[in-house]
Model the fold of this input.
Amino acid sequence: MYFIFTTISPVFLLIVLGYIAVKSNYFPKTGIAALTAFVNSIAAPILLFRAMLTMDFNKVFNVALVAPYFVGAIGTFLLTIIVSRSIFKNRPGESVAIGFSSSFVNGLLIGFPIIQTIYGDEAVLLYFTVIAFHSPILYTLGMVTMELSRKDAQPLGITFINAGKNIIKQPLLIGIALGFLGNFLGLTQPLIIDTTTKAITHAVIPCALFAIGGALNNYKIAANFAQAAVVSFMKLFLQPFIVWLVLIPILNTPIEDARIFILLAAMPTGVNAYIFSSYYNRGVNVATNVILISTVASFLSISIWLWLLENIQF
Done:
């Protein structure tokens, strides 16, 4: 347990540092938006570009490992919609936005540094095979489900077009696509470019964690705490449990590979949940509270999952 604590504590200390710096006005709140934009639009895409450029897809990509992760994400998405409708009596569109909040993981800002720190660079390669499909699959699923659910929906064909436009404009996916293309063509970076892009990737982890901490100042616990807490629990425990169920008991996947995807599923909700709910103006308060609660609670939940993965014989 001490190993787990010392491993993930620096990650969360960087988040706390960002929160305190903004809360005390030592670091400007407006600077967080710029820092987040730098991570999401420049540093992280370059990191993903470099990873995809050098990845051995024949060695790393395995549908039997990637698919179960999305079974967990999509299963949690659908179950949360049911809970939102039946227990909390939300409208269909709100329920879809809340379901999206339980499925979209903060894989880059929190998941990446934790998994890299614990399991090393080889694990990161497996991790990127999920990240490459994460946004396209879940955004498309969320948008199509939303349009099928809400009363003011637009035609399904337009929904697919808009979903495609939103997906291809994402800098993270552009970085992945360019890296994949370069890998396919057998291209390499000139030394000066390689050195420059490598230097930029070193900024991803500290900047991302500091930014997520600063951004937490924007989220306040509102009257829907109970609902957000239930959704956060489903995100932090139900989703990784489904992934575990498919990978270990059903597929008998070696724990050395399975634990990467189980732990990724246990990461808190990403800020994309707020972006999605704001875009449709559905369930925004719940989404923001889920981001806050799941991020704070993830220190405990990640520790629990790490302990289980390291100490229980499956």
Summary: The chain has a mean pLDDT of 84. Residues 2-311 form a domain with the Na+/H+ antiporter like fold fold (CATH 1.20.1530.20).
